[in-house]
């Protein structure tokens, strides 16, 4: 774990802009990419024995959902505080405090579930939702995902959200923590989650909330929380049996699963190749389409990122993309023959003796900017260089330290760059499509119009994908994942999701 930590981007950029090449890591920012994959070491399996659940936390950090910083404590927030919804394993909204969320365009209505109470026995009301929303929208944790809300109003058991702009996936954003009114500034506010926290001079523990509406009383109703100094100590505890599980967004480097089991946790972190479409050669859509066809995303996924996550054939998480009904021919696919056809059709038929394409008798060379502080991105750049060579495009990988890399992206000093963006749960592409400091050049009205039409319901995602393929402003490569590593003696089906790494903690044994 002796790798250098990633610096968090400035607040506005961290929330809405890409994480670009991302460093090797800030423990508080789940938005940063892995600096290396989880290793698959093998070890002698320990003899099965009865296991008492015990989870890690950081005693120096908060367990308040609006001020928590660390990854380890953030993973506990959905256990202690329910939201209106939570995302399930397929990135779909799973109703929690809300029994339903319906709407379209710029108005959505959440109907509160009957009988939901806080851990102190008081009823969860619409006033509590309004109070929690006000706390959440000014917090760094939830600010960006609630930024499109213009107003919130309550009537009886319904809460109405008025949006600034249409959003067909708005319900995905309603997993922010709900706390009892006027407790949001306390160290541990009153929540309605499956567990509540009790602290004493001897430490802290999770205690099952017997008033929780799901009424899934676990075999172990109290789970001690152990404060540990770093991930290495946590992994050691899991393997020795003194700790049950730990979640990591894989931003702190390589984690060994030897002596333990693991489950991949889907994230919204999209790794992509960005184009500066204002530069010569790349200003032709056919050239960008050819580069997209020349990239073998499978090789990049497995060799460059250790197979952690999911390959992307759409600019949206594959779990959500699978529900959009997109025909196979509209998916981005690896096709060297098609790449060569497109380049020939764009007029780049002349080649030198090495097979590299020429323009006016001179070799065409493009630069690939990567973050030198991230081993995955460096390897990805090398793989892309080799893939472009197979279709006659000479390229040079330019490695820059993170700050210089970020500056070059903002100033458009690249032809291609390998970047990463943590998309919000509604998969908004606005930071990429609208900001020239994130993606050089201008997007066409045809593309932006198709995107707006999908958002407001007058068009389909299929129409947007058609326009996207025609313009190819960037190439999505994959959505990477985090990981939950857990003790081998835990029995039962361990489930995880994008918004809750301990998705079914109450069912663990």
How would you describe this protein?
By secondary structure, the chain is of the alpha+beta class. The chain has a domain at 267-481: Dipeptide-binding Protein, Domain 3 (Dipeptide-binding Protein, domain 3, Roll). Helices cover 24% and strands 22% of the residues. It has 14 helices and 19 strands. It has helices spanning 11-16, 71-74, 77-80, 126-137, 231-240, 285-294, 297-305, 318-321, 336-345, 375-389, 402-410, 430-434, 445-456, 461-471, and strands at residues 55-57, 85-87, 93-95, 98-104, 107-112, 149-155, 158-163, 195-200, 203-208, 222-227, 245-248, 261-275, 309-311, 358-359, 362-363, 365-371, 394-400, 416-422, 474-486. A hairpin with a 2-residue loop joins strand 4 and strand 5 (107-112). It is globular. The two termini are 30 Å apart.
Features of the shown structure:
509 residues, alpha+beta, Dipeptide-binding Protein, domain 3, seven-stranded mixed beta sheet, four-stranded mixed beta sheet, 14 helices, 24% helix, globular, disordered N terminus
